[in-house]
Amino acid sequence: MNKVTRIFTLTCTLLLATLGNLVQAGDNGTSTLARIEQRGELVLGTSANMPPMTYKQPSGKVIGLDVDIARVMASALDVKLNITTMPFDELIPALQAGRIDVIISNMTITPERNRSVAFVGPYMHSGKCIITKQESLAKAEKSEDLNTPKTHIVTLQGSTSEQFIRTLLPEATVTTTDDLQKGIKMVKEDKVGGMMTDYPVCLSTLKNYPDAGFVSLFSLLNYEPIGIAVAGNDTLFINWTENFLERLDGTGTLDEIGAHWFGEFANALSGDDGKTDKADTE
Question: Strand locations in 137-273, DSSP E?
């Protein structure tokens, strides 16, 4: 039994003892918790294309920090975890339609998204960065330096990174992709000048491609709270998830999961409140 498994076992025992009494049927037995209980599984919606948060191995297995959080969540509910992958911009519609129970997919809490679904958290704070091989991009000090058609950036379709570029860099040339690995490849092969994504993904890319000549630009600061999305009309499940995340943080399990996925970068991602955070250098 490895360290992460031992932590999961201990945490799930505490969660079951503390939160188990919250699992009860809602109105006419149609609440999310009742549905999960009856089905015997928690259906997670995730894009599986943003390592190390959520991604698919060559074998097809979906892993990552977000998936580990979902596994502890399913264990606390004493059910199996059913991982459903789909394009990022289809996650919220799937949650609204009841095809999934929860979204844990490096999703930023935004006012626009919060009009459609409820968010619990944040369990992480992040920000934007650019992975590039071009010295001109790497030395940019303000958004005006990048707001030109000569700046060709790829980003994930439907993400806050795309919104960020289109709002603050309207003159830049934008290419979207449904898979961040494709975006990384485009930068590596000099097909685009850079890729805008979230800070944890930048760290993971630098770590996994040490010989690609990548550098990261962290000067475009912004606040990005990452949260768990649940149906907005189910107060019981919202309350349960709030208590779950509070317990996950309070037991130190959230920090342990972060250390497992980020290794030496974990300290750079650790905030004063105990939740994963962005580095001071971003």
Answer: 152-156, 173-177, 194-198, 215-217, 224-230
